[in-house]
C-alpha cells in the first residue's frame, strides 16, 4: 500500500469513528430521555392510582375519612392531650348511656358504630374470601389462573391469594353497604355479570358457616343487589308472650284490625301480624306433634278477643282430638269432634254463606264485616284426621264443603285455618286452597317444600332443623312475604285460654246448639 492509500484508510477510519461517536451520543440521549419518560410515567401512574384510591375512599368511606380528617385537624391545632381528653369523655359517656339505656343507645348510636366497625373489621376484609370460598365469584376463563401462595404468615397468605385472584380475572361481588340491627347484620353486595340472586340462596348455608352464625337470609334488594342478612343473635330463642286481654271496662268498640292481628314476633323483633280476613286469610299451619300449632291458633284469637266478644268475629271449631279446642269450648259458636259433627259445622257455615250470597249479590263485592255479618272463622285442628283418616263418604263430603268455603268465602267474610301434622296433598287435598302457609318444626326437608312451596328450603326456610325445644317457632311464607320469615307464635297458657273464654262469653258460654238446629231443621223438613 502506498502513502496515499494509507492516508485514505486512516481518514476513512476516522470518519467511521466520528460517526459512531455521534451515533453513540444520540443513542445515549434517546435512552436517557426514554428512562426519564419511564420514570415520569411510572410516577404519574402511581400518583393517578393514589388519587383514584383517595377519591374511592372519600366516596365509599366518607364517614371514616371525615373522622380521620377531624382527628388529624384536632391534633394539629389543639394537640393530643385535649384530643385524648375529649375522646375519653365521649367513650365514658357512651358506656354510661349503654349501661343506663341499652335499647335507646343501640337505636341512636350503637348500631351505627357496630355497622362501621363490622364493615372495617369483618365484612370488608373477609367477605370477598367467603364469597370466593362459597363459589360466589365469577372467573373469566380467558385469563389464565396464576395463584401464588405465600406461606410466611396467614395475613400475607390472604393478601397473596386476594392479589392472585384479582390478577387471574376473578370478579367478586362488591360490598355496598353494611347495616347492623340488634340481632341481624344486613350486608348488601352488587352481583357481578353472570350471577343471579338464586346463586346466593343456594350458598346460604355455606355463608352461614363461613360467618359462624346459624342463619343467613338472602333478600333481593334490586335486580343486581342482594342483601345477605346474617343473624348474630336469635331473638326467638325464648318464648314470646301473647297480648294481654283487653280491659273489660275500656273496650267500647272492638279496636281490632282483622287484616293483621298480633300472632307473635318475627325474627327481626317486629310483631308478627296474621290476617283473619281479606286476601290470604285462609291459612294452613303444619308442624310435627308438639311443634306448637295450637299457639298459632290461640294467639290471634286472644288478640281478636274484643272482636269475638262484640260478635264481629264468630269462631267455629272442629276438633277431631276433642281436647285442644274443648278447653276453650265457650269461645266457639259451633263446635264438632266427630266426622258427623264436623259436617254439621261445615253445613251451618255454608248456610250462612248462601244466605249472604242471596243478601249481597249485586249490592257489594265484599261483605262488610259487622256484628250483623260477622267474620266466620273456622279453626280446623288436625285437619288430616277428617280429610284422610276417616271413611270415604265423610272424607269426600268434608273436602267438598271445605273447598266451597275456601274458594267462595273470602269476599263473603269467611276465613278457614287448618292445622296438620303431615302436610302431604294426600292428607290435605284442599292444601292449595289455603294460600297462607306457616311451617313449624317438621320431620323432613320435603315437608318444607310441601307446606311453603318449591324453593322455600333453599331460600332459608329450614323448618326441619328447628329444635324440639323451640315450640311455636316456624317459617311464614306466601301473600305479601317475599322471603321466608322466621316467626315465633305467642305462647298462650291454659289460664289465658280460660280467661279468653270467660272474656268473650262474658262469663257464660254463648254457643249455637247445632244438634238442636238439626233436629228443628229435620222437623221442619218432615212437616
Ligand atoms: N309459642 C310457644 N312458645 C313456647 N312453648 C310453646 C309454644 N307453643 C306451644 N308450646 C309448648 O309446646 C308444647 C306443644 O304445643 P302444642 O300442643 O301447641 O303442639 P301441637 O303442634 O299442637 O302438637 P300436637 O299436634 O301433638 O297437638 C306445649 O306443651 C306447649 O307448652
From TrEMBL:
Residue numbers binding ATP: 287-294
The organism's place on the tree of life at top rank: Bacteria
PROSITE patterns from the UniProt entry: FTSK
Transmembrane helix in keyword set: yes
Segments traversing the membrane: 36-55, 84-105
UniProt cross-references to InterPro entries, sorted A to Z: FtsK/SpoIIIE/SftA, FtsK_dom, P-loop_NTPase
The UniProt record lists the keyword Lipid biosynthesis: no
One MF annotation (Gene Ontology) recorded for this entry: ATP binding
Domain FtsK: 269-449
Keywords carried by this UniProt record: ATP-binding, Membrane, Nucleotide-binding, Transmembrane, Transmembrane helix
Any Pfam family hit: FtsK_SpoIIIE
Entry-linked Gene3D superfamilies: P-loop containing nucleotide triphosphate hydrolases
Coiled coil: none
Protein name per UniProt: DNA segregation ATPase FtsK/SpoIIIE, S-DNA-T family
Record organism: Amycolatopsis saalfeldensis
